[in-house]
Amino acid sequence: MSDVRSLGDQSEWEPDWTEPELPNSRHGARCLALQALYWGASSGANGLGDVTAALDSLDRRSGLEPEYRAFAAQLVGVVVDHAAELSQLIEKAAHNWSLTRMARMDVLILRLALAEILHVADVPTRVSIDEAVELAKVYSGESSYAFVNGILDAVASGLGVDM
To answer: What is the DSSP string of 18-55?
Structure first.
């Protein structure tokens, strides 16, 4: 008898990757918000899609405590409500770059951080920028963190936001 698997055994085709558990913290809430924004942007014609449905679906699997799920929902709501304003700030700071030339994930990370900086009062600007840099290191390209940091610093400085 050979030890070759039968055609009915699909275990070799099943991925061994499992979705990492989000930390039960504001960082985890930011990850959840970013995932929902990406899901919405990937499925919507207007670039934002139905992020509410995305957030609801992801939220059920997240394992985050209610306070952190509420923070994620707040962030997503602010990004959606202020998308045009946030996009203008990004384009103004990114000399010779349009949003369409930027990586989708970078744009979403920038919107998320700027929404937090400008519209969430209890988070220091430096924390929002540091969190965005960390999100870029995990969810975006190799050098995206430097790009995200530079854009956020330029916007914050241009607006006179306390660092």
So the answer is: -PPPPPSSHHHHHHHHHHHHHHHHHH-TTSS--HHHHH
